[in-house]
């Protein structure tokens, strides 16, 4: 049965009623929103990437196995793999370096504008398109205070989270393929870390599976996903601080 909730008067002076389940009841799992959550059990077809003996007080610890799959056909290519190499120019000559070391060095430096952000990403991503829409968002849509807050406070937090990838997902992430019965369970912090790396465009890409899987990085979705992520971060930060 739907709840009968009376709202404030509308613009015509009439009292309106909203028929539906209250947000409070939804969050508390009452009524139609009451359902049992099946236990997380690892199996041959269900990969659990964290220890399942979790508590509400601490973040789940990542599952660590003897085998690492950081650069294999059936797994996501991880940015911190030793096989993830990148050509850079030093002293007028090209040298090959581990991309993850470049990523960590570049993103650890201060970034204060969207132009500096794009320049940083280009130091480890040669296929990055122009981020004109992102520049427009920061210069025309956001006020100076919010833009400054993002680069000074929020972006460093995103970078710190992204650089925890080798710790949070040390053995890699299996790919979910068509006609294969397989599922994954990840913790919220692991998912957040993957999203942070996608926002920073750190993932390498396999050209041979590009037709079967969408890109992991946010490059193809900028300004869409990236701008929504920036807006969401700023809005959440304001709510947390009561602004």
Features of the shown structure:
12% strand, two-stranded antiparallel ribbon, disordered N terminus, Poly_GlycHdrlase, alpha+beta, single chain, 243 residues, two-stranded parallel ribbon, PARG_helical, 35% helix, PARG helical domain-containing protein, 8 helices, poly(ADP-ribose) glycohydrolase activity
Provide a descriptive summary of the structure in words.
The structure is a single chain. This protein is an alpha+beta fold. The chain has one domain (59-241). Helix content is 35%, strand content 12%. It has eight helices and six strands; from the N terminus they run ββαβββαααααβαα. The protein has helices at residues 23-27, 99-107, 114-122, 132-141, 144-162, 165-168, 188-199, 224-240; strands at residues 4-9, 15-19, 46-48, 85-90, 93-98, 183-185. The strands form three sheets. A two-stranded antiparallel ribbon has the order 1-2. A two-stranded parallel ribbon has the order 3-6. A two-stranded antiparallel ribbon has the order 4-5. Helix 5 (144-162) packs across helix 7 (188-199). The longest helix has 19 residues, at 144-162. It is globular and about 65 Å long. One of its GO terms (molecular function) is poly(ADP-ribose) glycohydrolase activity. It comes from Dendroctonus ponderosae. One of its GO terms (cellular component) is nucleus.
Record the strand order, biggest sheet: 1-2
Gyration radius, to the nearest Å? 22 Å
Element-by-element helix/strand order: EEHEEEHHHHHEHH
Class per helix and strand makeup: alpha+beta
Low-pLDDT segments: 1-11
């Amino acid at each position: 049965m739907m709840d009968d909730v009376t709202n404030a008067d509308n613009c015509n002076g009439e009292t309106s009623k909203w028929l539906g389940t209250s947000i409070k009841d939804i969050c508390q799992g009452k009524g139609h929103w009451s359902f049992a959550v099946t236990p997380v059990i690892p199996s041959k077809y269900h990969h659990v990437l964290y220890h399942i003996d979790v508590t509400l007080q601490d973040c789940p610890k990542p599952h660590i196995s003897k085998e690492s799959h950081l650069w294999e056909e059936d797994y996501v290519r991880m940015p911190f793999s030793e096989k993830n190499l990148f050509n850079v120019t030093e002293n007028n000559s090209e040298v090959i370096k581990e991309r993850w070391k470049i990523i960590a060095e570049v993103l650890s430096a201060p970034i204060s504008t969207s132009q500096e952000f794009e320049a940083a990403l280009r130091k480890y991503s040669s296929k990055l398109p122009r981020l004109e829409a992102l520049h427009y968002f920061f210069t025309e849509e956001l006020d100076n205070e919010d833009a400054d807050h993002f680069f000074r406070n929020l972006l460093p937090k995103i970078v710190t989270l992204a650089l925890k990838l080798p710790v949070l997902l040390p053995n890699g992430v299996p790919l979910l393929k068509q006609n294969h019965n397989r599922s994954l369970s990840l913790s919220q912090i692991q998912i957040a870390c993957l999203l942070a790396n996608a926002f920073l465009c750190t993932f390498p890409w396999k050209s041979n599976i590009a037709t079967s899987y969408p890109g992991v990085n946010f490059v193809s979705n900028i300004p869409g996903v990236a701008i929504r992520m920036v807006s969401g971060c700023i809005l959440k930060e304001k709510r947390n601080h009561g602004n």
